[in-house]
Specification:
The protein is mainly alpha-helical and 410 residues long. The chain contains 13 helices and 4 strands. A hairpin with a 2-residue loop joins strand 1 and strand 2. Helix 2 runs antiparallel to helix 5 and helix 5 packs antiparallel against helix 6.
């Protein structure tokens, strides 16, 4: 497919994905908050709880109740398409961005010789299998002990992450785990929550009593969706955090962040029942941030620090530094080598080993050519994943970038 066409659909799908996700997550946060904060009415046997809310100059009177088959509301709003649109646009993005590019954005060639289509197949089948495994666990006896079910699912997902770390690059590991969790969330809506709601309404229309057990099953799946919303948001945005996925301890970092976010969400839900919820949330944030910082900086302690300052560089190099940031180069090319891209600090004037077994001198000509035609001479241990900047930069801009890269070796 034409590169420009791919990028066009990428923009459309990404915007659709973000808007739909905001709507879906917003629904989840609001409805769970209302569910948790409902006030019990002991005098009304048909009431499951009520609350009054002030918003936009008006008062909303909310009442969750057992529905009388003889008094079914004429109109009921059902929330499902936000979830479906989020998932469909997300899957389309994965296919368009990753599966159509021969595995170059999925694989880490320094870890495995796996073929691109094999990688795409593993990714797709894993996303499908995640739902069946998840659903089977919540239908097993473990559902009677939710903490045990959550522990089994979490340990299984961590083990899976370490397995795919053997061939996927770290950036895609984050996205793959996020896609699997998001798939279980949408499947919960499609195969459990909505069908149960339909069964309840069908029974009521037949004059049968309101089946509260079907409602409890739907509520359980809705709550599991709710508690993983924050981790999924992080994983879906993780491609913007190379300092995290580029670290060799990126999986422990993912675990720390996910656990911290779930605990913080839990504390937010307890704010009416647990007086120290804010203290616990802040403490969790501080401990989680500290844990991530240790993972990032502790392994590098004792190593010779890389000098990222560029004192007394030319005005051309300064403009090149600005381009390096504005064009997104700094997102992958960190001050130290990562699993996504090599560091450019200190490479100018050195021999660079390439994936084809040859080597090349990293001089002005090589750097210019690599920027314009990024897949021609790829550094050993890396995938040809960098986009080409041929015709995207003027000769003056190329010279500015080369001057900045050269300054990193002084």
């Amino acid at each position: 497919m034409n590169t420009e066409l791919i990028e066009f659909f990428n923009v459309v799908l990404r915007f659709t994905h973000i808007v739909a996700a905001i709507m879906w997550i917003g629904n989840s946060l609001l409805f769970t908050w209302m569910e948790i904060n409902l006030i019990k009415d002991p005098e009304n046997k048909n009431s499951l709880g009520y609350m009054n809310m002030l918003h936009a100059g008006g008062v909303f009177f909310l009442d969750k109740r057992v529905i009388d088959p003889n008094d079914i509301p004429a109109r009921l709003h059902v929330f499902k398409w936000q979830s479906y649109t989020t998932w469909l646009s997300g899957i389309a993005l994965i296919v368009l961005t990753f599966y159509t590019r021969s595995g170059t954005l999925l694989l880490d060639p320094s870890k495995s010789d796996l073929l691109g289509w094999h990688a795409s197949l593993i990714s797709a089948l894993s996303i499908i299998a995640a739902w069946f495994i998840y659903d089977a666990i919540w239908k097993s006896p473990l559902k009677k002990v939710p903490a045990a079910a959550v522990a089994v699912l979490a340990l299984g997902l961590i083990g899976y992450a370490y397995w795919i770390d053997g061939f996927f690059n770290s950036r895609f590991v984050y996205l793959q785990v996020g896609a699997m969790i998001a798939t279980t969330m949408t499947a919960n809506v499609r195969f459990v929550i909505i069908p149960n709601q339909k069964k309840i309404m069908a029974a009521l229309l037949e004059g049968k009593p309101h089946d509260l057990e079907l409602g409890r099953q739907a509520k359980l799946r809705s709550l599991t969706n709710h508690y993983v919303t924050f981790p999924v948001i992080f994983l879906m945005l993780s491609a913007h955090f190379p300092i995290l996925y580029g670290n060799r301890l990126y999986i422990p970092i993912m675990i720390i962040i996910a656990v911290s976010l779930v605990i913080i969400k839990w504390m937010m839900n307890l704010y009416n029942k647990f007086s120290d919820w804010l203290f616990a949330s802040v403490a969790t944030f501080i401990l989680g941030t500290g844990g991530v910082a240790l993972c990032i900086f502790l392994p590098n302690m004792g190593a010779k620090p890389v000098d990222t300052n560029t004192p007394a560089i030319s005005s051309t190099a300064i403009k090149g530094k600005e381009l390096f940031s504005s064009k997104g180069c700094s997102a992958c090319h960190l001050p130290v080598d990562s699993s996504i891209a090599p560091s450019l600090h200190g490479i100018y004037g050195t021999e660079r080993p390439l994936t084809d077994g040859s080597s090349v001198l990293a001089d002005e000509a090589y750097i210019k050519h690599s920027i314009q035609f990024s897949t021609d001479q790829v550094s050993k241990g890396y995938a040809p994943a960098m986009p080409s900047f041929d015709k995207a930069l003027s000769e003056e801009e190329l010279n500015q970038l080369v001057a900045y890269i050269e300054s990193l070796s002084k």
